[in-house]
Amino acid sequence: MLRFATAAVIAIAVGFACGDDADDFGVGAQCAGNADCDPDTMQVCLQFKGGYCGIMGCTADADCPDLSSCVAHSDGVNYCFRNCIDKGECNRNRDPENEANCSANITFVEPANNQGLKACVPPSG
How far apart are CA 53 and CA 22, in angstroms? Predict the structure, then answer.
């Protein structure tokens, strides 16, 4: 039992040491398919120019890592999208030819939590 508890503590410490915000998990990163996104966080590659890794199935902002929010997507499913105030925040994990824009044209699931924020959205593919 002690070994299991020690292993669990080490796993948790390693997980936090690697970071826990949207950029660390690759939310908003470009992708060619689901395999390019983090499967441990239920990410899928959404069909935008250059793809877009989004965490599928959120119901509230609390389901998303820091620097991201739960948004309603046109496919009827909610995803965690990278938050932004300006375009420069959107492209840490994207190539210049697949740049995302910082868009106010997004439906936040919890708009009261996201006043003044926008979401990173690449052009449609």
Answer: 10
**pTM for this model (two decimals):** 0.80
- Read off the DSSP letter of residue 98: G
Q: What is the pLDDT of residue 95?
A: 93
* DSSP per-residue letters across 28-96: T---SSGGGS-GGGTEEEESBTT-EEEEET-SSGGGS-BTEEEEE-TTS-EEEEEEESSGGGG-TTS-G
Half-sphere exposure of 32 (CA within 13 A, CB side): 1
pLDDT digits (tens, 9 = 90+) for 6-41: 333 333 333 333 467 888 888 999 999 999 998 888
Q: Which one, of 115, 107, 118, lies nearest residue 74 by Cα?
A: 107
DSSP 3-state of 108? strand
Angle of CA points 43, 108, 76, to nearest 5° = 60
Are the C-beta atoms of residues 114 and 69 closer than 8 Å to each other?
yes
Mean pLDDT, residues 87-94 taken together? 92
- Say if residues 39 and 111 touch (Cβ distance below 8 Å): no
